[in-house]
Every structure is written in structure tokens, then in C-alpha cells.
Design brief:
The protein is of the alpha/beta class. The chain contains eight helices and twelve strands.
């Protein structure tokens, strides 16, 4: 395998090492026909989660930081990569009132530092619209599609415990995946859902709808401050 091909495969698999590139890894050139898409879902509100035995999202940046880490990995591997970051905005507007901070401004600072195209969305249809037609998909294919946020085995839940305690009103269900247009993903695209339980059902439906395998967790995942999410249980596994 050529060095450039090896490096490209590292980007897709999420194992990019800054040390590797510092030691002379080949420099990738931007591919105008490929786009990296990172999705960050919304966080829960503290008022509902704070007193639960196992609260969600004590830190408002859970899914923002994870997305930023992934963006940084890709940017270090290819300074010219086309990166689009889709963020579920309503959840951060509501959480901002609790934090008494302008969270949107802080999110936008990541966009500015890493020079990515940041798009806010409020509905699953808006997300699907960007994936299908945000760029000319006859020319620009999605090479990476990665999701950071709440999920269960059947759907990505963008506002879990944010608008309604322990529930969600905005989600992308596995039954909605056929709405993705054929051919928007590159044939060798890397897809991964970093949330909980996706590998138990949604990954299978993603393959049926797109022809591309998506990695997902069997069991729960745990979000960390300075690392990509990890499996939370010894019995868990990654599956596609």
C-alpha cells in the first residue's frame, strides 16, 4: 500500500496519530471530490439529569469536544480536507440558558480554528437535505460520515432529555435512512456512529439503504474529555 493510501485509511478508521505525521508521514492533497461530514447532536439539560443516579451530559461539550477531536485528527492528516460539521443548534440554545454562556459563540470558535464549514440544523429533514444535496453529489461524495450524540439501537436522538425529560422529539430513525439518495457516499466511505447501541440495529439498516457499512456500538459508549468515545461496558463491542 502506498504511504498516501495508508494515511487516507487512517483518517477513515479514526486512528490518526499526530506523532506519525510529525515523523514524516506523506502529506495528503485535498480531494475536491470528497467531503468529510461530522455530526454533533445535542446535550441534555442539567435540570432533568442532575439528580439521576446516572446523569447524562454533566459537561455541555460532550458531543462538541468529541467532534472537535475528530475534526482535528482529519485536519492534521490533510490540511486541505473538505470538512463539514453539522451541529444540532436548538439543544445548545436551551443549554446556554443553564450555563449562562453563549455556547453558539464557543462552538463557532472551533469552526474558526479548524477552518471547517459549520452548518446548524434543527430537524432531521434539514440534516438529510444537506447530506443529499448540500453539495453536488454527482461530483462531491461523502468519504466520512460520523455521528457524535445520543442514540439507541434504532435512531440518532438529537435532543434527548433536552426538550422533554428522558425523551426526544427530534431524531433520525433507521426507517428514515432510505431517504438518503443512492450514491451520495463514496464506495469506500467510512461511516461510524459513536453513540450507544447503534450496532444493534441501525447499522444494518444503514447498509441496506446506502450500500456502505456503518460501525456502531453494541452496548453503551462513554464520552471523554480528551479522547474519542469508548465502549462503556466490558461486554460491549463495535459492529458494522
Amino acid at each position: 500500500m502506498r504511504r498516501a493510501d495508508f494515511k487516507s485509511s487512517l483518517i477513515r478508521l479514526g486512528r490518526v496519530s499526530a506523532a506519525y505525521f510529525a515523523l514524516g508521514g506523506a502529506v495528503l492533497h485535498a480531494d475536491p471530490e470528497r467531503e468529510v461530514v461530522i455530526i454533533s447532536g445535542g446535550v441534555a439539560l442539567s435540570k432533568w439529569e442532575h439528580y439521576k443516579p446516572k446523569p447524562h451530559d454533566n459537561w455541555w461539550m460532550n458531543f462538541i469536544r468529541a467532534g472537535r477531536i475528530r475534526i482535528q485528527q482529519v485536519r492534521e492528516a490533510d490540511p486541505q480536507a473538505q470538512i463539514t460539521w453539522l451541529v444540532f443548534r436548538p439543544a445548545y440554545l436551551r443549554r446556554a440558558k443553564e450555563e449562562k454562556k453563549d455556547l453558539v459563540k464557543l462552538i463557532d470558535s472551533v469552526r474558526d480554528v479548524y477552518h471547517v464549514k459549520r452548518i446548524y440544523f434543527s430537524t432531521a429533514d434539514e440534516l438529510l437535505a444537506y447530506l443529499n444535496t448540500g453539495r453536488d453529489r454527482e461530483k462531491v461524495k461523502i468519504s466520512n460520515l460520523e455521528y457524535f450524540g445520543h442514540s439507541n439501537k434504532a435512531c440518532w436522538m438529537f435532543d434527548y432529555s433536552n426538550f422533554i425529560d428522558s425523551a426526544s422529539k427530534v431524531w433520525l430513525h433507521e426507517d428514515d435512512l432510505p431517504k438518503l439518495r443512492p450514491g451520495i457516499l463514496a464506495r469506500d466511505a467510512f461511516a461510524k456512529s459513536w453513540g450507544c447501541h447503534t450496532g444493534e440495529s441501525m447499522s444494518r439498516h444503514f447498509l441496506q439503504a446506502t450500500g456502505v457499512r456503518m460501525w456502531g456500538a453494541v452496548g453503551k459508549t462513554q464520552y471523554r474529555t480528551d479522547e474519542l468515545p469508548m465502549l462503556a461496558e466490558k461486554s460491549g463491542s463495535w459492529k458494522r
